[in-house]
């Protein structure tokens, strides 16, 4: 969300990428069950397992960092800010990152047009 807020504000993200520890392993080390989920088709079963467990359970679900969370109403300033940040990314040599964002979100164009 920090990355998205920066981009909507017209700034290319800076230092928002994280390489997290294996939180499921951390939970196991503390004596609790934990699970990492990387695939969308595994989410439903993982949630069922988590809710069926009697006690604390860490469920870590990985999401697409380039997926945009669309607000109920999109303001012109948000569109301009996102356009500006994508332009700055491309001019800064991060064309692939800008393209990944477009690829992850082009399906939403019909919702905003």
From TrEMBL:
InterPro entries: POXB-like (IPR047211), THDP-binding (IPR029061), TPP_enzyme_TPP-bd (IPR011766)
One Pfam family linked to the record: TPP_enzyme_C
Domain (Thiamine pyrophosphate enzyme TPP-binding): residue spans on this chain: 7-61
PANTHER family per record: PYRUVATE DEHYDROGENASE [UBIQUINONE]
Protein name in the entry: Thiamine pyrophosphate enzyme TPP-binding domain-containing protein
Species of the source: Epilithonimonas arachidiradicis
